[in-house]
Amino acid sequence: MGRLQNKIAIVTGAAQGMGEAISRRFVAEGARVALCDINLDATEKLVAELGEGAIAARLDVSDNDDWLRVVALARSSFGCVNILVNNAGITGPTKGLLDLDEEDFLKVCSVNQTGVFLGMRAVVPSMLEDGGGAIVNISSISGLLANYGTNNAAYAASKFAVRGLTKFAAIEFAERNIRVNSVHPGYTRTPMLTASLNDEQIEMAAKNIPSKRVCEPEEIASLVVFLASDEAPYITGNEHIIDGGYTIV
Ligand SMILES: NC(=O)c1ccc[n+]([C@@H]2O[C@H](COP(=O)([O-])OP(=O)(O)OC[C@H]3O[C@@H](n4cnc5c(N)ncnc54)[C@H](O)[C@@H]3O)[C@@H](O)[C@H]2O)c1
């Protein structure tokens, strides 16, 4: 029996990278999954591969109407929602405070921060009706270290906010059997990373990581499966760092 047997999940940013790896593992562990992304074509291709345990939906996480539609779709397709993984994120421009336009700042926050708020607000009522659930919010080591060399004020602000929202929601819903945790990955080999760093730059970055390598998306998926599963009933409101030791030093 899979570790997520009989669970119903919504995963955002599911078309590629970490969201793809998480969705693949969830289906392999027995969950039925609504894969959601702004890139519907890529999501539909993945769903066709994953088979009947998966459905695809177009979702812009910063749009409340999209969220209401997706939750209704997941419930009508599968019956309820037990798990939400708020994974979708963007980096925005690599700029410090003084060079950053307000528009760019708000865009990054609308996806990375408001998206997590809207997602939890849309899904929690359904979880409460069904007796509880588990939420995993993907932050970053940028939500722990203000600037580890990336010089991206908007990204750091939004990822710190994810950590705060996670803890707030964990307290608000702990008694009602909803667990909320944040995951803080370090450098992870996804299209987001390879779009900004070439192979040589990734190798250079790895030299500063105690484990001497970057993370693979499947390793993030393993942590998310654990946090979302019934194996973690007493874990809530915590920051789960997965960075090969990067934040130790
Ligand atoms: N890759 C890394 O090194 C790294 C490290 C720490 C944290 N993270 C975080 O992990 C998460 C996943 O990152 P990734 O590396 O897989 O990124 P990625 O860019 O490879 O994939 C992100 C996915 O999110 C989707 N997306 C973007 N905006 C969206 C929106 N408004 N609504 C719905 N979907 C949207 C994209 O279409 C894409 O499929 C992000 O929150 C990111 O900030 C990544």
What does this structure look like?
It is built from 8 helices and 7 strands; from the N terminus they run E-H-E-H-E-H-E-H-E-H-E-H-H-H-E. It is an alpha/beta fold. The protein has a single domain, classed as NAD(P)-binding Rossmann-like Domain (Rossmann fold), CATH 3.40.50.720. Strands 3-2-1-4-5-6-7 form a 7-stranded parallel β-sheet, with helices on both faces. The longest helix has 28 residues.
Give the topology, please.
Blueprint: E1 8-12, H1 17-28, E2 32-37, H2 40-50, E3 54-58, H3 64-78, E4 83-86, H4 102-129, E5 133-138, H5 153-173, E6 178-185, H6 191-196, H7 199-207, H8 217-228, E7 239-242
Parallel strand pairs: 1-2, 1-4, 2-3, 4-5, 5-6, 6-7
What structural keywords apply?
249 residues, alpha/beta, Rossmann fold, 7-stranded parallel sheet, 8 helices, 7 strands, 46% helix, 15% strand, globular, binds nicotinamide-adenine-dinucleotide
Which range best describes the helical content: under 10%, 10-25%, 25-40%, 40-55%, 55-70% or over 70%? 40-55%
Total domains = 1
The CATH class label is Alpha Beta
The ligands bound in this entry are: nicotinamide-adenine-dinucleotide
Count of runs of 4 or more consecutive helical residues: 8
The rounded distance between the terminal residues' Cα atoms is 40 Å
Low-confidence stretches: none
Largest sheet: 7 strands, parallel
Order of helices and strands: EHEHEHEHEHEHHHE
Strand adjacency order, main sheet: 3-2-1-4-5-6-7
What would the principal axes of the Cα set say about the shape?
Answer: globular
**CATH fold-type name:** Rossmann fold
Q: Quaternary state, please?
A: single chain
